Amino acid sequence: MAAPVRFVILGGGPAGNTAATHAARLGAQVTLVERDIVGGAAHLWDCIPSKAMIATGAAMSSARRSRGMGLETLDAGIDLEELGPRNAAITGHLSRSVCTLLESQDVRLIRGTARLKGPHQVVAETEHEVVELEADAVLVATGSRPRVPAWAPVDGERVLTTRHAYPPPQIPEHLVVVGSGVTGVEFVHLFASFGSRVSLIISRQQVLPDKDADVAAALEADFLSRGVSLLKGARAEGIDRTEDGVVVRCDDGRRVAGSHALLSIGFVPNTEGLGLDAAGVETDGGFIPVNHHGQSNVRHIYAAGDVSGKLPLSSVASMQGRKIAEHVMGGHTRAHRHLDYEKAASAIFTEPEIADVGLAETDAFAAGRKIRVTKVPFAASARALIDGDARGFVKIVSDPATGVVLGGSIVGRSASELISVIALAVTAGLRVTDIVESLLVHPSLAEALAEAAE
Ligand SMILES: Cc1cc2nc3c(=O)[nH]c(=O)nc-3n(C[C@H](O)[C@H](O)[C@H](O)COP(=O)(O)OP(=O)(O)OC[C@H]3O[C@@H](n4cnc5c(N)ncnc54)[C@H](O)[C@@H]3O)c2cc1C
Q: Quick one: 140 and 173 in the same domain?
């Protein structure tokens, strides 16, 4: 019998831990090295704590909305003392679940810092020892951290990155958010729902510059209705600390004074000190370029997750890990389908939520592609009216000749859940009639999908 494939993974975030369990299931001898928490930044800093705090804000707005549903409600305040432990409890629970899964698949977990010593050698330094590992295949899945430009004096007190926000030292009286991508707008929403006054510095002319214009407009309208100041066409180029706050300076001369500033202007990959040179692995701007199998230029060394420079989403990182595990174990020759980044669903956890998948209307027009676009507002949905929140719409993009669903966007309550239906249709190549003819629950928000597919 051939010796099992020795697969060594650097980093236990969504990319690393999914690759580990899947490869072990397929018969590999897997070692995973993680220097911090199994589950990764995704659990500790990014997806989970941000959504846990957004859920607190959502509970507050839901309580406020309930007044219109015949309930007497208290105007509750936020207890910062409760938020930190709540985040830690959720993160801890999820991390333990991943550890149990790794254990059940006999994955060797080393808690330490890993680097490559050569193309087939990985060194893991733990608190007590240095472990040398031989590998037939290696996965670099060391994630990323927030980008901090030289002009931003981040101190974790008044000038924050997203990592200082779980929770911040105090609820900002006036928060100036720099960066209007997905993460930036989620923090605008989060702190506006906590009662902070919020100003958003937007370098272009709309929030979420890469999203469908209808979607961005719906979010901007919501922000304006909640008193958020939108400073468009302004690029931050400096932050000064004042006695009791900050002043953010913009390149067009505008200055925005606030109590706190929060930076959300991208991320840098964690690839320094990994010994990539020693192994001959090429990088580009710190990222590790990979082919459609996730292989770097050194074919048995793979990269996944944020270090690969593809879509920076936890869901994508996990799927990359899964596909790489299959490739390492030779499974790609059977039922393996390449990961299609164009078909990744994503959501923005604002209120209303925003979610999309596949081809966007704007991109189709830009490419001169013929499409059919249908749009239905939630105002016509019985369930949305019952729930007291009929904001938003469902939009479905399909091929006019075949009826195949190409994409869609949803703005509204539970958009992050509802988009799964369109994501499945896009991945499986279903037609609009497949959605229309599904026997759905009534009353449900999903009925709006069937109507939009009509
Ligand atoms: C505020 C915020 C919110 C987000 N929310 C979402 C969301 O809702 N949904 C979503 O899909 N995505 C979200 N993302 C993106 C998502 O968090 C990342 O895309 C995802 O974490 C990438 O996974 P990863 O496995 O590449 O890396 P990570 O999750 O960063 O994990 C990498 C791991 O490698 C470890 N490591 C690093 N170097 C070494 C080393 N030398 N040795 C050993 N271990 C090492 C780190 O400790 C870490 O645990 C969010 C991002 C941010 C910033």
A: no
How much distance in Å is there from the Cα of 368 to the middle of ligand 1? Answer: 36
Q: What is the pLDDT of residue 202?
A: 94
By C-alpha distance, which of 302, 268, 300, 301 is closest to 287?
A: 268
pLDDT digits (tens, 9 = 90+) for 407-422: 999 999 999 999 999 9
Of 98, 122, 94, nearest to 31 by C-alpha is: 122
Tell me the mean pLDDT in the region 12-20.
Answer: 98
Looking at per-residue pLDDT, the higher value among 13 and 44 belongs to: 13
| 323 domain residue, yes or no | yes
Encode pLDDT of 348-382 as tens digits.
999 889 999 999 988 898 889 999 999 999 999 99
Pair of tokens at residue 300: 């048995």
Q: Report CA 383 to chain centroid distance, whole Å.
A: 28
345: in domain? no
Are 351 and 369 in contact by the 8 Å Cβ rule? The answer is no
- Residue 422 belongs to a domain with what CATH number? 3.30.390.30
Domain for residue 346, yes or no? no
The alpha carbon of 144 and the centre of ligand 1 are apart by a number of angstroms equal to 6
Predicted local distance difference test score (pLDDT) of residue 335: 66
Is residue 1 a part of any domain in this protein? Answer: no
- For the Cβ of 46 lying below 6 angstroms from any atom of ligand 1, the answer is yes
The model's pLDDT over 281-326, given as tens digits with 9 standing for 90+, comes to 999 999 999 999 999 999 999 999 999 999 999 999 999 999 999 9
CATH of the domain at 104: 3.50.50.60
**Residue 130, domain extent:** 6-146+269-333
Whether 89 and 196 map to the same domain: the answer is no
d(CA 42, ligand 1 centre) in Å: 4
Q: Which atom of ligand 1 is nearest to the CA of 11?
A: 34
Distant-in-sequence, close-in-space partners of 89: CB < 8 Å, separation ≥ 6: none
Up-side HSE of residue 361: CA atoms within 13 Å toward CB? 16
Whether residues 256 and 282 share a domain: the answer is no
Q: How many domains does the chain have?
A: 3
Determine whether the shortest distance from the Cβ of 14 to ligand 1 is under 6 A.
yes
Closest CA to 191 of 78, 272, 110, 293: 78
Q: Do both 119 and 10 map to the same domain?
A: yes
